[in-house]
Amino acid sequence: MKKVLVLGTGAQGTTVAKRLDEEPAVSELICADYNKAAVDELVGSLQKARGVQCDARDLASIVSCARGVDLIVNALPLEFGKNVLDAALEVKANYQDFSSSTAFDDDVVLGWIRGLKYQLAVYGPKFKEIGKLAIIGTGSAPGLICCVTRDAMKHLDTCDTIYNFVWEGVEAKRFQPFWWSPETAIEDMSEPAYTYENGELILRPAFEDPIVRKYDYMDKEVTFLNHTHDEPVHYGLNAEQYFKGCKNAYFKYAGTGMDFAKPLQRAGLLTHDEVEIKGRKVVPFDVILDYIPKPPKFEHEIKEIIDEGIISDEGCMVVEAYGKKDGKDILVENHVFAPGLVEAFEKAGMTGEMYLTGQGGFLFSKMFVNDDFDMTGLITSDMLPMDKVDQYLAYAAELDITVETKIKPL
Fold first, then answer.
1. Is the overall model pTM greater than 0.85, yes or no?
2. Which of 38, 31, 26, 27 has its CA nearest to residue 5?
3. H/E segment holding residue 281
4. 291, 399, 335, 338: which is closest to 170 by C-alpha?
5. Strand 193-197 and strand 328-337: pairing?
6. In which element (H, E) is residue 199 found?
7. Cis omega (within 30 of 0) for bond into 142
8. pLDDT of 24-57, one tens digit each?
9. Which residues pair with 200 in a beta bridge?
10. Residues 137 and 97 sit within 8 Å (Cβ to Cβ)
């Protein structure tokens, strides 16, 4: 039986906690956040959970919450990653993070890559030394989509180019541009996009380089644009060992949130630089963020939005992998299918985003508590051995998150 600490009571931490509460292998669940009221609301709906207040800026506060746990699930903002990693090492627990910390290098853009390499090189041996495993990038993207991309490699002898396409086309009558952390969303949208081209990691302008796709199940053509994301960095760093020598990797994004953020970014309203307006100093990013509604996470909040009316409930997650098989050029398309907003609420009382990202993260937690992992060290989610990828996708299928593979000659 396992004891688990979930840090963060946002939409994703809430989803993981709810699902872990149902797992037979979990004996106790600790839910922690600085916002005690949010913690109390969450644990009030759970059976195995107790809530504690935790200040993630203070390493000792995290350690106090984490003593005796087998797994720490970090669903906090990226800047707290270092403290939570250090706490996991101190209490000798496994570690899971939805993303990768920005706390290792002050450079806003390139510092994240240096920080990722640092975690792999420095924290990997530390976790190996205590016989524990840390996995970073464990939501839907990165996370689920990384496993789906690895699965595509089964069908190739060599890989040249990988595209990850994500379209979040859910729009409510209520103003709700983001169904997950607005802060993380617009932070990502304000920065150049990581791209892996011709064997090198480079930066491309945000919201540029359009690619149009219309798959069979889509009602319209969708234009995907550059968006800074982890996957091209991961695939580039692991190209030879895990991605059949891939030379190019791209993450392309589309949807309501992108449509909302693009004019803000072009107008300079996503800058963190302080500006003076009519004699008052303000940070445009902070002003915009303050006016964006938080994503719903509890059933009554989601139901209110659905009852008010949904304009569209569409989306896609697709991996396109181009390469060779038996000397012939082929395209491997892996399509992810999962419930949308309305169906996700009917099935599980969640938004579609929570269903895919929160449960995508939960599936890694499930593998931890079921002792499905036999590795130690620190890895990104795209570095799972193929048998672990298969297990992950099998668990996903139990939640109606499925993958359809199409192999096309070129």
1. yes
2. 31
3. strand 280-282
4. 338
5. unpaired
6. none
7. yes
8. 999 999 999 999 998 999 999 899 999 999 999 9
9. 197
10. yes
Q: What is the pLDDT of residue 354?
A: 87
Across the chain, mean pLDDT equals: 94
Amino acid identity at 96:
Q
Residue 354: beta bridge partners? Answer: none
Q: Return the residue matching tokens 């979930």.
A: 6
Q: Residue for token digits 């099998």?
A: 394
Q: Backbone phi, then psi, for 311, in 5-degree steps?
A: -80, -45
Handedness of CA 368, 371, 374, 377 (dihedral sign): positive
**pLDDT tens by residue, 100-135:** 777 776 665 667 788 899 999 999 999 999 999 999
Reduce the DSSP state of residue 172 to 3 states and report it.
strand
Q: Which residues make Cβ contacts (< 8 Å) with residue 145, sequence separation at least 6?
A: 164, 166, 231, 317, 319, 336
Sign of dihedral through CA atoms 163, 187, 259, 342? positive
Q: Where are the alpha helices (DSSP H) in 204-283?
A: 231-237, 239-242, 256-266
User: How far is it, in rounded angstroms, from Cα 21 to Cα 2?
Assistant: 11
CA distance 320 to 339: 21
Residue 132 tokens, joined: 């524990």
**Domains, the chain, with CATH or none:** 2-136 (3.40.50.720), 144-349+402-409 (3.30.360.10)
What token pair was written down for 141? 């993207």
Q: Are 13 and 7 spatial neighbours (Cβ–Cβ below 8 Å)?
A: yes
Neighbours of 309 (CB within 10 A): 9
Residues in contact with 391: Cβ distance below 8 Å, sequence separation at least 6, in sequence order: 367, 372
